[in-house]
């Protein structure tokens, strides 16, 4: 099984761009890639969602969306408002397992953070990861406040029997401030896992070819990239 669950420390941290970057590198390496988005919220039925962005940036990957809710809320709240069916971890895990049979890598991209609820039973992405026995990748912000939410995410994951593979900074600016530079060394400590990348801010607005170059530069060899965590941390420390 080669399934990776991609979660964030919150909304708008760059999960989709990081998911697309991982998919782009895997695809460039000749691997068959599938991306599963269990719940897409805040997008109308006829509008492109996160998976459309993944395809635009990564190219020929298999995508599957299980449920779409028009309101920009948590999946549970959005389902309640719309009257549409809620999702449950067995359903999501079954879809991921099915994709895993025909692909070399399956990426499961969550909505918001690890404990955002799918339904009134309290089920979350953490339950999906546990059901799959999958590694969890945490996408975090660069700036002030990120250490607390990263540590909380990692602590909850560990308490639930999950293994955090690493943390990726979802958007690294060209001119980082002091907090961002300082956080480079502290984020892997907060996550209890290695820093596996820092994707350049605005990478998601690039064309496919340039995005692949940014993915290679911004992600660890663990994903097929060239990101050197030790060098990145030393460079950040030198600027503080």
From TrEMBL:
Pathway in which this enzyme or protein is active: Cofactor biosynthesis; biotin biosynthesis; biotin from 7,8-diaminononanoate: step 1/2
Broad class of where this protein is predominantly found: cytoplasm
Residues that hold Mg(2+) according to the record: 16, 50, 109
Coiled coil: none
EC number(s) recorded for this UniProt protein: 6.3.3.3
Alphabetic keyword roster: ATP-binding, Biotin biosynthesis, Cytoplasm, Ligase, Magnesium, Metal-binding, Nucleotide-binding
NCBIfam families reported in the protein's UniProt record: bioD
Protein name according to UniProt: ATP-dependent dethiobiotin synthetase BioD
